[in-house]
Amino acid sequence: MDGQRGDAANTRRDDPRLAVLFDLDGTLVDSVYHHATAWHTALNGAGIELSVWRIHRRIGMSGGLFVNALARELGHRLSAEQVRSIQDSHERAYTAVADRVRALPGAIQLLGALTRQGVPWSIATSGRRRRRRSVSWGWRMTYPS
Question: For 111-136, what is the mean pLDDT?
Answer without folding.
Answer: 74
